[in-house]
Design brief:
11 strands, RNA-binding, mainly alpha, single chain, two-stranded parallel sheet, 21 helices, elongated
RNA sequence: GGCCUGUUGGUGAAGCGGUUAACACACAUGCCUUUCACGCAUGUAUACACGGGUUCGAUCCCCGUACAGGUCACCA
């Protein structure tokens, strides 16, 4: 078998979204698992839709995820250039167009866009699926000369065989067959502006770059027969294809750019404080599953165990709860400093040096339960608000018999406490137990509710210590007033 | 509409002719922690879309139905 060479070929018409990222990831894993090359090629032939920063977003975010490429626009390689516009300018595609034209496998179409539109409307009105009617497919020499003399511009169309079976063995879908008659007529390979269309450029580039396997989204599956016909027409080796199922939203629909039901751009996850390793892990589980029962895998391990035959045939549903869970698994493994770096951007930063140690201690309280960076903002509100308030459940608990006495005693002990360390607070609580004989849940829960206003939270004594004497006592007063 | 594809517990997802139909998340309970969270253990769950075949035997194979998705550009 020749060397495995795969590519991820984004068009810079948008930022890197979750579906792109998955395609890139699987290509990367497949390449590295097989000791092959992973190439990033920019497909920028849609000049009008290319957006500022699209290319950079693609590359930067891939890098953030930990995907590394062997050849690309930013590092070069032996098969450059790595963006199609540059390849077009270098005249790479011309030769092949000329060859197809000369062999009669393609022809120039002089129909104007308006003519085509009218024809399409007519076909639609008759209940047909619009497709090119082949008007220019058999022009006489004289007609051609006439159009040329008029200075009409043209596109180049590929002559699609009339009734031919095109099949291939797909890595994920197994045997797939299309009939050429179901394809939308003679399709363009060169646009009016002389730039090749996607279907044409991709074939030439994959051929020249010696791409061995094409792993892409299922939305490309109907392009594949067109591309295979082109490979055949030019007598080129057809790569092995694999069409991965789409990632769908909670409603089971394909992700669209406007879909707000889930966050779909990698950049946004980065901004929310998700960890790249966790995203890598999570995305890998979208439409693929490892053999065993584990689900948490690092990059190196994934490279080792990746198996393209385990790509799923049914759509991958984006499970946000799973993502949060996976991310938390990775957060827990962080060192204290790494963790603090992650959450700091989401905390108030205008603090003095003294306060910054306090802030770090507050943040540390939540390390084991934090799902993603931004979540810290909500988690720590207790430490920043002036007054607490109680929910129904807390009120109910605190209104049980004897709680007032417990709280009064706690308040007195805390007020008397010289230092306000976690240990001192523990001692204060213990003293209440000794004096009043309450213990366990009936001791700690009222203490927790009265000082923090919450029934659930991090380590109590540390929390109270960080809250400070003044606030803790004020909170207790408030709670007593509510009973 | 043509063509292509999918349908397994609340959610995600294994399974490829014979299984007590994995596992994870979520949920519940217990243990741990004098509370909480983490962790650990256990458990709940009328899960194989429906109808026909094939077979000694179908979640797994075939046909049909329903539902869902994809795609039919001078976009990629």
């Amino acid at each position: 078998m020749s060397k495995v060479r795969v590519r991820y070929a984004p068009s810079p018409t948008g930022y890197l979204h979750i579906g792109n990222a998955r395609t890139a990831l699987f290509n990367y894993l497949f390449a590295k698992h097989n000791g092959g090359d992973f190439i990033v090629r920019i497909e920028d032939t849609d000049v009008a839709r290319n957006i500022e920063g699209g290319e950079k977003s693609q590359l930067d975010n891939l890098k953030w995820l930990g995907v590394e490429w062997d050849e690309s626009i930013d590092m070069g390689g032996d098969f450059g250039p790595y963006n199609q516009l540059a390849r077009h300018e270098a005249g790479i595609y011309t030769k092949y167009v000329d060859q197809l034209l000369a062999e009669g496998k393609a022809y120039k179409c002089y129909c104007s866009s308006e003519e085509l539109d009218v024809e399409a409307e007519r076909q639609k009105a008759e209940g047909m699926i619009p497709r090119y009617n082949g008007k220019c497919s058999n022009l006489t020499e004289a007609q051609i000369a006439g159009f040329e003399a008029e200075g009409r511009d043209y596109t180049v169309r590929f002559r699609v065989p009339t009734n031919e079976e095109i099949s291939w063995t797909d890595i994920v879908k197994s045997d797939v067959t299309f009939n050429s008659k179901d394809i939308s007529g003679d399709f363009n390979i060169l646009k009016r502006d002389g730039i090749p269309t996607y279907n044409f450029a991709v074939v030439i580039d994959d051929h020249l770059m010696e791409i061995s396997h094409v792993l892409r989204g299922e939305d490309h599956i109907s392009n594949t027969p067109k591309q295979i016909m082109l490979y055949n027409a030019m007598d080129m080796t057809v790569p092995t294809f694999g069409h991965m199922t789409l990632i769908v939203n909670p409603d089971g629909k394909k992700l669209s750019k406007r879909d707000t039901s889930i966050i779909q751009f990698i950049e946004q996850y980065k901004d929310l404080g998700y960890l790249p390793e966790a995203m890598f892990n999570f995305i890998t589980l979208l439409g693929w599953s490892p053999v065993g029962e584990d689900e948490i895998f690092g990059k190196e391990e994934l490279i080792k165990i990746f198996d393209e035959t385990r790509l799923s045939k049914s759509p991958a549903k984006f499970d946000e709860a799973k993502l949060t869970w996976i991310n938390n698994q990775y957060v827990k493994q962080l060192s204290e400093d790494e963790y603090y770096d992650l959450v700091l951007p989401f905390l108030q930063k205008d603090l003095s040096a003294e306060d910054s140690a306090w802030l770090k201690a507050v943040a540390m309280l939540y390390k084991d339960q934090l799902s993603y960076g931004q979540e810290i903002t909500e988690l720590v509100t207790l430490f920043f608000k002036d007054e607490i308030s109680l929910d129904e459940e807390s009120l109910e608990f605190v209104r049980q018999e004897g709680v007032v006495e417990t709280l009064e005693a706690l308040k007195a002990n805390l007020a008397a406490s010289e230092e306000f360390t976690a240990d001192a607070i523990k001692a204060a609580i213990k003293a209440v137990q000794k004096d009043l004989g309450v213990k366990g849940k009936m001791l700690f829960m009222p203490s927790r509710i009265a000082t923090t206003g919450q029934m659930h939270g991090p380590d109590l004594t540390s929390s109270v210590s960080l809250l400070g004497k003044e606030k803790a006592i004020a909170n207790i007063d408030y709670v007593i007033s509510q009973i």
